[in-house]
């Protein structure tokens, strides 16, 4: 067999696509969505505007954005049959499993595979962006024994999610900060869950299966699941004095420290810096946070020990502190990551449809040949 390049575990450094959706400079700590710097977008834009930019490759006009927001508002509700199905889910199940299952179930209700019809594509984009947050909030309400709360049409995308989750209208600062978090998590080139979405999309299956595949991939602790693990770690450390002993224990056990390290960033993830500022903004509202002080000390000690290896905080390190200050339960941090990343997954789904080439890599065969079939009596 002739290979075009040698095998690299995890496809490290292997281009799996040509894409113009986003760009990461891992040495300089730069993230751009369609060429626009993430700092600009989080300061001046909104999540839905960013989703439009990612998916349709340009910033919407005022009318287009209004129409997009209105369409999504109309599609927020989920079918009662999906709500009934979710009532059968065990309340002890992880919300990511509930989301993966209910996202796939959307495919049961909508026509499949009209992928050459731009109207089908547009509808699928609107339905998924609109319904995924509702499904996350609905499962959370049901596992508490409540009926799901219907979306509130007076509230924008971010505020409505917090409302469906907490049963209270959020204050404007909380809604604004949450919207910025969604923009920060919307897209990040060919990460594991986006790659899953692309591989699934390349078989021309329906977009609901594509999103369900990506949700399952994001759930892993090495990927989106790290944000939930970070707070458990900060609780385990418990005090600033315990930070150094904790890091030394991780080094001794060759245990990875959650919220640090990245395949691409070899400096601090620019999203971590923005999230850190959001935590400080929330201090005004909710007071200093001992876990934040532990996190800052942990960042310092990790830099001392791992900075030379290019291991710095990634997007998952401070996000949990923001979500906790917004009153969001720890096990919903990764579903929130999924809510935002639906925008990026859909952008790559559309881009992959245009490539229209099924993913089918090869392998370096390390097995044997012409092996005998041994009868069971002789084994
Ligand atoms: C996300 O890809 C994306 O873009 C993902 C993401 C996105 O927006 O989609 O940015 C979101 O998933 C952020 C990552 C969240 N995960 C975590 O925080 C879990 C902890 N991080 C590590 O598991 C790890 O850093 C990864 C998975 C993020 C990256 O893994 P790599 O690129 O495969 O790195 P590696 O495991 O090969 O590590 C290289 C070296 C190793 O040391 P050596 O064996 O070479 O001596 O760095 C060490 C690792 O042991 N290392 C760490 C470490 N991460 C890497 N050591 C301690 N703590 C860590 N966190």
Automatic annotation (TrEMBL):
Keywords: Acyltransferase, Transferase, Tricarboxylic acid cycle. It catalyses: oxaloacetate + acetyl-CoA + H2O = citrate + CoA + H(+). Pfam families: Citrate_synt (PF00285). GO terms for cellular component: cytosol. Pathway: Carbohydrate metabolism; tricarboxylic acid cycle; isocitrate from oxaloacetate: step 1/2. The keyword Acyltransferase applies. One of its GO terms (biological process) is tricarboxylic acid cycle. One of its GO terms (molecular function) is citrate synthase activity. The active site is at 262, 316. This is Citrate synthase.
């Amino acid at each position: 067999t002739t290979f075009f390049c040698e095998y690299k575990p995890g496809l490290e450094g292997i281009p799996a696509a040509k894409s113009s959706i986003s760009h990461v400079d891992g040495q300089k700590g730069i993230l751009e969505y369609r060429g626009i710097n993430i700092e600009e977008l989080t300061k001046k834009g909104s999540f839905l505007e960013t989703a439009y930019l990612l998916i349709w490759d340009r910033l919407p006009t005022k009318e287009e954005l209004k129409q997009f927001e209105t369409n999504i508002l109309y599609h927020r509700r989920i079918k009662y049959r999906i709500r009934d199905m979710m009532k059968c889910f065990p309340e002890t199940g992880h919300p990511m499993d509930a989301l993966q299952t209910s996202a796939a179930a959307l495919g049961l209700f909508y026509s499949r595979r009209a992928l050459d019809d731009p109207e089908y594509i547009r509808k699928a984009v609107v339905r998924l962006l609109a319904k995924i947050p509702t499904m996350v909030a609905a499962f959370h309400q049901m596992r508490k024994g409540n009926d799901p709360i219907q979306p509130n049409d007076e509230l924008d995308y971010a505020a409505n999610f917090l409302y469906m989750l907490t049963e209270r209208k959020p204050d404007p600062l909380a809604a604004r900060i949450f919207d910025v978090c969604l923009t920060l998590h919307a897209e990040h080139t060919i990460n594991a869950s986006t790659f899953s979405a692309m591989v699934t999309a390349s078989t021309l299956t329906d977009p609901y299966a594509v999103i369900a595949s990506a949700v399952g991939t994001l759930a892993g602790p090495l990927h989106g699941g790290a944000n939930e693990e970070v707070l458990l770690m900060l609780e385990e450390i418990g005090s600033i004095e315990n930070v150094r002993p904790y890091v030394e224990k991780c080094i001794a056990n060759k245990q990875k420290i959650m919220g640090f390290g990245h395949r691409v960033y070899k400096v601090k993830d620019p999203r971590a810096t923005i999230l850190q500022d959001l935590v400080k903004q929330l201090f005004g509202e909710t007071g200093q946070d001992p876990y934040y002080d532990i996190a800052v000390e942990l960042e310092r000690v990790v830099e001392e020990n791992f900075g030379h290896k290019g291991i710095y905080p990634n997007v998952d390190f401070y996000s949990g502190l923001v979500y906790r200050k917004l009153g969001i339960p720890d096990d919903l941090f990764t579903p929130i990551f999924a809510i935002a990343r639906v925008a990026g997954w859909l952008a790559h789904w559309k881009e992959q449809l245009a490539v229209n080439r099924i993913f089918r890599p090869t392998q370096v065969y390390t097995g044997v040949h012409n092996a005998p079939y041994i009868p069971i009596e002789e084994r």
